[in-house]
Structure formats: C-alpha cells, structure tokens
Amino acid sequence: MENIDKSKNTAIIAYLTIIGSVIAIFMNQEENKSEFASFHIRQALGLFISFFLLGYFVGYANSWTATSAFYLFYFILWIFGFTGALQGQKRELPLVGGFFQNTFKNL
Predict the structure, then answer these.
(1) Out of 4, 53, 56, 67, which residue is the most buried by the measure of CB atoms under 10 Å away?
(2) Which of the four pLDDT bands, split at 50, 70 and 90, describes residue 2?
C-alpha cells in the first residue's frame, strides 16, 4: 500500500488548470511514481482536454442555455475529481472517468 499523503500534493496540482496537469506529470516521474497521483493526473488531463475540444464546438451553438449547461457539467466533474484528490480517494469521474483511464494509461 503506497503512502497517499506523499502523492496527494501531486494529485491536487493536477486539477489546477491544464498547466498544473503538465507540472504534475513531471512531478510524478519514475523515481517518485505513484499510482494515486497517476490516477488523478489521467482524470484531470482528460477533463481539461475534453473541455477545450468540446467547448470549441459548444461555443458555436450560440445558445446561453447550452453553454451554461456545458460549463456547469464540467464544473461539477472538476469538483468531483478535486474533492476526491483532497480526500485521498480514487473515484472515477462519472460518465467519462473510465475512458480517461484507458486513454491516458501510459501516464
């Protein structure tokens, strides 16, 4: 069983913007590799990349309701992942967490 307290900082940093995810990847290199931090890095990186990719197309919807729902959905997912990192839990994001874990399994 790994020490989650040591890798909790890396997991929290991963959720602080996409730059934080990149910094967390470098913090979680070979000598300091943690499965807990890797789990949250995959979740956060997938969340940010999908936000930017889907947000580009949602912006063309020209509807404040669609845009508001999109932002609210991603904010709730971000809160879910961030609180999991703060509490030291490995909870996949609803709907998309498994996909992110499979997509970024090399991190």
Answers:
(1) 4
(2) low
> For 64, phi and psi rounded to 5 degrees?
-70, -30
Which whole-number Å values give the CA distances from 104 to 3, 43, 46, in the listed order? 23, 9, 8
**Nearest to residue 36, comparing CAs of 13, 7, 5?**
7
Mean of per-residue pLDDT scores for the chain: 88
Q: What is the pTM assigned to this prediction? A: 0.86
Q: Give residues with Cβ within 8 angstroms of 73, minimum separation 6.
A: none
* Residue 37 near residue 24, CB atoms below 8 Å: yes
Q: What tokens does 47 get? A: 């969340």
* Nearby residues of 25 by Cβ (< 8 Å), 6 or more positions away: 41, 45, 107
- The amino acid at 52: F
